[in-house]
Amino acid sequence: MMEQAIAGSRDLWEGYLVHPFVKGAEEGTLTPKQFETYMVQDSIYLKEYARVFALAMYRAETLREMQLFYDVLSVVINDESFTRVKYLRRYGIDPDRVDEIAPLPENKAYTDFMLEMASRGLAEALMAVLPCMLSYLYIAKEVVKRSPDVLTQSPYGDWLADYASERYAEKCSRWAAFADQLCDGYSRERKEELAGIFRVSSQHEMRFWDMSYAAQ
Q1: pTM (2 decimals)?
Q2: CA 109, CA 204: separation in Å to the nearest integer?
Q3: 81 vs 54: CA distance, rounded Å
Q4: How far is CA 125 from CA 52, 63, 209, in A?
Q5: What is the pLDDT of residue 216?
Q6: Are 178 and 57 contacting, i.e. CB atoms less than 8 angstroms apart?
Q7: CB of 122 within 8 A of CB of 197?
Q8: Residues with catalytic function
Q9: How far is Cα 122 from Cα 48, in angstroms, rounded to an integer?
Q10: For the chain, what are the domain ranges?
Q11: Which residues contact 67 (CB under 8 A, 6 or more apart)?
Q12: Cβ contacts of 182-188, under 8 Å, gap ≥ 24
């Protein structure tokens, strides 16, 4: 299932690698305003992303499923939030006041889509959230491969390091395997439908990069 889903969005993922925001983070040329906008909006996004996992955990039918959703929820709340708090404070923003900031339209459209998919079922929820998780691993690994010093030389290296780590890769591998297991036995039509959800989320990912880079 995941091989099919990723293949159906490969063109978008390749586009992430040459996106001016990603290239700017790699080269250290993003403006502070661009990265600040990204960090603020991503912090808002992660709150809603966590809600999707909480909703999926509520809908889970087995203890193992609950544990897997809780595992990723803990990564979102603890690991990713830690790095964001550090950057927000660097920009003079109180992390506790981010909730008072409105999401930009591209951000809200993305989180609304994920929550809608999560309300339909576990498979839909997974296909909506996995593009974010898996594409960040893909981006970080490819960026580090082509620019080995990026984690220490770019001012945005700490952010990339979160997604280039072996711990994060292991989490992604577990979740991809879980999705494959959950969708095993589905009809071709059902898998195509789920791959379509995965692609829509991948399109939202691209719009998130566009939104962040457009910040002035």
Answers
A1: 0.93
A2: 8
A3: 16
A4: 7, 17, 22
A5: 72
A6: no
A7: no
A8: 132, 205
A9: 16
A10: 2-213
A11: none
A12: 182/122, 182/123, 182/126, 183/1, 183/123, 184/1, 186/1, 186/123
CATH superfamily, region 2-213: Heme oxygenase-like (1.20.910.10)
**Alpha carbon distances (Å) from 36 to 7, 32, 61, 211:** 32, 6, 39, 12
CA–CA dist 9, 176 (Å, integer): 15
List, for residues 75-98, the tens digit of each pLDDT value.
666 666 778 888 999 999 998 899
Question: Could you give the C-alpha distances from 97 to 24, 41, 75, in angstroms and in order?
Answer: 27, 12, 21
Tell me if 135 sits within 8 A of 16, measured CB to CB.
yes
Segment (H or E) for 142 = helix 122-146
Residue carrying structure tokens 């339909």: 120
Token pair of 167 as six digits: 């711990």
Q: Which two tokens stand for residue 166?
A: 């072996």
The one-letter amino acid code at 116 reads: E
